[in-house]
């Protein structure tokens, strides 16, 4: 069966543009015109991916994203006219997987949809057995368990995948493009801001002092590495 996509936007022209492009590619589509309708459609139709506007009546896209993330890891692509850095960071911080600003090219949206669906399917595959442990941080990739000072830390699938590739290559510098392609897909190899945002998320959750990291280190304008502390 083809993947089912929920399109949420209060602009009928935008919905028509996205829906037509998706249907030509063989996707099933469901549409909603505001945030409340979006949540109802999400629970009733169980889509494989959301394309979500932000500025809408009743509930905005940020709130829809937050509520969906409380119960599901389904990929969310925010498609909006809000293009300031703080808007993008807020969307990603609430759990969106991707962020595309209007006006947009349908071909680019379709490429990002394919990448996010592919990544969601990959996230379900088992990890190889890799364990890291010191007195502060414990990571078991096979069990998908990360602990800081004995307390379990919850990571999103994207955060976990980024941490996994860093830990599997511990001590080795991985270039930005290499990380972007392996975690997000080849469509994202130039989106370094995505990588920086997610590295910051990981540092906030894992580092004793996020502003002075000891585990996830960067080499200016080159890449990142995971530095073992034992």
What's the short version?
It is built from 8 helices and 12 strands. With about 230 residues, the chain is of the alpha/beta class.
Describe the structure using short key phrases:
230 residues, alpha/beta, Rossmann fold, 12 strands
Mean pLDDT: 90
CATH architecture of the largest domain: 3-Layer(aba) Sandwich
Distance between the termini: 48 Å
pLDDT < 50 stretches: none
Number of helices: 8
What series of H and E elements makes up the topology? EHEHEHEHEHEEEEHEHHEE
CATH level 1 class label of the largest domain? Alpha Beta
Overall structural domain count? 2
The CATH homologous superfamily of the largest domain is called Response regulator
What is the SS-derived class? Answer: alpha/beta
Strand order of the largest sheet: 2-1-3-4-5
CATH topology of the largest domain: Rossmann fold
Supply Rg. Answer: 18 Å
Total strand segments: 12
């Amino acid at each position: 069966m083809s993947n089912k996509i929920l399109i949420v936007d209060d602009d009928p022209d935008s919905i028509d543009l996205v829906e037509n492009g998706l249907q030509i590619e063989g996707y099933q589509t469901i549409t909603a015109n505001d945030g409340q309708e979006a949540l109802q459609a999400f629970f009733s139709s169980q889509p494989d991916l959301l394309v979500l506007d932000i500025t809408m009546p009743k509930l905005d896209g940020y709130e829809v994203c937050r509520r969906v993330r409380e119960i599901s890891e389904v990929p969310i692509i925010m498609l909006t006219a809000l293009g300031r850095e703080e808007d993008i960071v807020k969307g990603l911080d609430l759990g969106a997987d991707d962020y595309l600003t209007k006006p947009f090219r349908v071909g680019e949206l379709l490429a990002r949809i394919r990448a996010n669906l592919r990544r969601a399917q990959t996230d379900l595959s088992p990890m190889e057995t890799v364990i890291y442990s010191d007195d502060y941080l414990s990571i078991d990739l096979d069990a998908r368990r990360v602990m800081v000072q004995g307390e379990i830390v919850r990571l999103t699938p994207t955060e976990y995948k980024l941490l996994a590739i860093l830990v599997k290559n511990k001590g080795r510098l991985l270039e930005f493009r290499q990380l972007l392609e392996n975690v997000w897909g080849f469509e994202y190899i130039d989106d370094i801001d995505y990588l920086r945002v997610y590295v910051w998320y990981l540092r906030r959750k894992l580092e004793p002092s996020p502003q002075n990291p000891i585990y996830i280190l960067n080499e200016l304008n080159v890449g990142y590495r995971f530095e073992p502390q034992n």
